[in-house]
Each structure stands twice: as structure tokens, then as C-alpha cells.
UniProtKB/TrEMBL annotation:
This protein's name: DUF2218 domain-containing protein
UniProt superkingdom: Bacteria
Pfam families in the record: DUF2218 (PF09981)
InterPro entries reported in the protein's UniProt record: UCP028291
Length: 98
């Protein structure tokens, strides 16, 4: 079985802050862990891996079987819209990598 993967990128100087917020927020829904530069969480639609650099937040989503990319993107983007509202965040730059 070939799982679909998506990669999202958000240029921001607050990448580590947003990654930590996302992981903490979703920790009640599934296994979550994070450091200053990397994080991961498992949600019903798939597994998310994060990388935070000085100027960029990157997320890789490995979709669970039967899940669709649109839902995954909407969940990520809607949460970041709340956390990054001061930056006028609308959506990550998404690429289908798998």
C-alpha cells in the first residue's frame, strides 16, 4: 500500500512557537512529542511531522488509509490561522509528495 504524503511550508520567524502550539493542542487526540526544532503528532487523518527553522515551519503529513488530502490541509491551515493570525496567515504552501 502506498500512503499519500503532503508537505506544507509556512515562512515565519515564529516556526518553533507555532509547532509547539500545534503539538500541545493536538496532544489529547493522539501521541505527540516535540523539541525546539522538530515535532510529531498522530491524528485521525494521519501522522504529522514538523521541522522548525529560524524562518520556516515545514509539515509533512502521511495520510491514513481512507483519509483525503483536502481534509488534512484544512485542519492544518485552520489551526495555523488561529495561532498565526497576527501574521495574516491564510494557508501553507502545499505540495503532494507521495
Amino acid at each position: 500500500m502506498d500512503m499519500s504524503k503532503l508537505t506544507g511550508t509556512f515562512a515565519t520567524p515564529f516556526a518553533a512557537k507555532y509547532m509547539t502550539q500545534l503539538c500541545k493542542h493536538w496532544a489529547h487526540k493522539g501521541a505527540a512529542e516535540w523539541t525546539d526544532t522538530a515535532g510529531s503528532v498522530t491524528l485521525p487523518f494521519g501522522h504529522l511531522s514538523f521541522q522548525a527553522t529560524e524562518d520556516r515551519l515545514m509539515a509533512t503529513v502521511t495520510l491514513a488509509e481512507g483519509s483525503d488530502a483536502t481534509t488534512a490541509k484544512e485542519v492544518m491551515d485552520s489551526h495555523l490561522q488561529r495561532f498565526a493570525f497576527r501574521e495574516g496567515f491564510e494557508q501553507m504552501q502545499w505540495a503532494d509528495t507521495g
